[in-house]
Amino acid sequence: MKPVTEGKLLWSPTEEQIKQTSLVNFMKWVNEQQGTKFETYQDLWKWSVLELEDFWESVWKFCQVKASAPYYSVLNMRQMPEAKWFQGAKLNYADNVFKNYKEDKTALFFRSERVAKREVSWKELREKTASIANSLKSMGVKPGDRVVAYMPNILETVIAFLACASIGAIWSSCSPDFGASSVVDRFKQIEPVVLFTIDGYQYNGKTFNCLPVVTKLQEELTFVKHTILVPYLNQITPIDTLQNFTSWDSLLSNEQELQFEQVPFDHPLWILYSSGTTGLPKPIVQGQGGILLEHLKVVNLQQNLSAEDVFFWYTTTGWMMWNFLLGGLLVGSTIVLYDGSPSYPSIDILWSLIEESGTTFFGTSAGYISSCVKAGIIPRETHNLSKLKGIGSTGSPLMAEGFSWTYANVKEDLWLVSTSGGTDVCTAFVGGCSILPVRAGELQARALGANVQSFDEEGNSLVNEVGELVITAPMPSMPLFFWNDENQERYLNSYFDIFPGIWRHGDWIKIDEKGSSVIFGRSDSTINRQGVRLGTSEIYRVVEGLEEILEGLVIDLEMLGRNSHMPLFVVLKENAYLDDQLKQKIKNEIRHKISPRFVPDEIYEVEEIPKTISGKKLEVPIRKILLGFEVEKVANPDSMSNPHTLHYYQKLAEQLNQEHQNK
């Protein structure tokens, strides 16, 4: 790819396209209801963050949220994390999905490496959801009970989730590519009563038997009373030869009407996981009403989706984008599910699925677009993409060259949405706007209702300068709480430790005067690999559990303009030697106990790990040094127990920078 200037104009919507957007209809509706005269997105955004209560009530009414009891207050206070939304309201997420019911219309379009094609109508979706929901109730599952899934992105997973939501139970899922210990670390914290699982799966042409992991989960998750098995890898898995399993098909025989448990706005919907630098993964609890309202806002107003659209985001059930993809059902869109490698049997597989399913909006990661660039493919020449109107990119910053490649090789008349948000809120803070032009390397706008600012270290707002991405006002989809977080200690330390009362997200961002932005990667030490985040502590538990390793330091060097690179530094025990065999052993341990995506790119032997006087590893300062920051500006030798170790990382930074320039 030829270099392209950041900020170069690549696409603009036509006047006709602008008129047909849901966003313009919403703006007109607000002007009529509020007596305002908004003409630009920036005007609407400013109102949405200054008049929070009016904005979110407008979203509720415009999107016609279905509720059985009215709210008496939109927002009790604008203080985080104490804010409470729409008190008094009673509703159900699944009820708001099935209000879009159209009997024979396709609700789910599924394909995998093993299944060529499978479509599920709204009629079938409702019937099977009802069967699973009533079976769960027969098992004694009550509102507030946790139901977990060790399942891939398949039809049964969506059905199980909707059934869970319909009865007010709390959902949580992990992708089968997570190792047993990673799944246990997540699920054990929330004490689930039901486990949905598969027998195995296929990825990149290889099959994986999950039953040994499931047996481990049954041993560790002592609160699980029922394990429901979906025979996915082997359609004739002999259920009767397995212990303590109930077959998925036996649940489908429970034919009754689908009913919806009416719950308060802040009743938990699901638990997602995001990791800090210490301790177990954080179990983030998000509410039925908060997710419902936020996702209606995003899919309807920001992404311009409707019942006429086919929405496909390539994801696994271990990434928040799976939960976000479900939001397409809230506006009646057909959603596309794919289980498998994005490059098997070739890098063209997702483009083939886009064509076959008639996808109108395709979501992926910046890493996948980069892979397409490197593969030299030209999808517009090999596939009929006439129905494709938009592409979303997230997970990591999309470089300007990725923007340019998309318009040159996919489609000229295309809305490319680079977006950034987080598992913590299951949405985007900054991203797309259907009525604004697309410029290379830029995220078009701050999301409605999200008061995103760039702060310097003193908490001053910046324009056209890189600073910490912060949110200065509450959002409905912010966590209700972390599970088992006494006195909200972990919650407060995760987001409000630097700027009291201000949400600090952990990304570097630059916002210009027109509201567009550029994300420069993580400002903390959390690992982000293709959009899935992991705390360094999970890597350390595996690596430092090896008999040859004394301790380790892992650094994620994801940053705009650079290829993602994750080195691991290890201190060896006496008489141990870092040869190819030990390196492979370390990688295999991480691959099998955590996930293949978190295998380090390089392993270095060091004599010591840089630490503070109190013994804390210097993860963030070392990350900044390796990204090219001056040592004096990011590390204070007087606060370190071994300041002499910094020289090694400074030299390595120079080497990595030279390698980057030579590419």
Would you kindly provide a written description of the structure presented here, covering whatever features stand out?
The chain is of the alpha/beta class. Strands 7-6-19-18-20-21-22 form a 7-stranded mixed sheet, sandwiched between helices. Strands 9-8-10-13-14 form a 5-stranded parallel sheet, sandwiched between helices. Helix 3 (41-50) packs across helix 4 (52-62), helix 6 packs across helix 7 and helix 8 (180-190) runs parallel beside helix 9 (211-220).
Quick tags:
seven-stranded mixed β-sheet, globular, single chain, alpha/beta, 663 residues
Residue windows where pLDDT falls under 50 for at least 5 positions: none
**How many E strands?**
36
Which strand-content bin applies to the residues? Answer: 15-25%
Mean pLDDT: 92
**Biggest sheet, open or closed, and with what strands and sense?**
7 strands, mixed
Rg, Å, rounded: 24 Å
Spatial order of strands in the largest sheet: 7-6-19-18-20-21-22
Molecular shape: globular
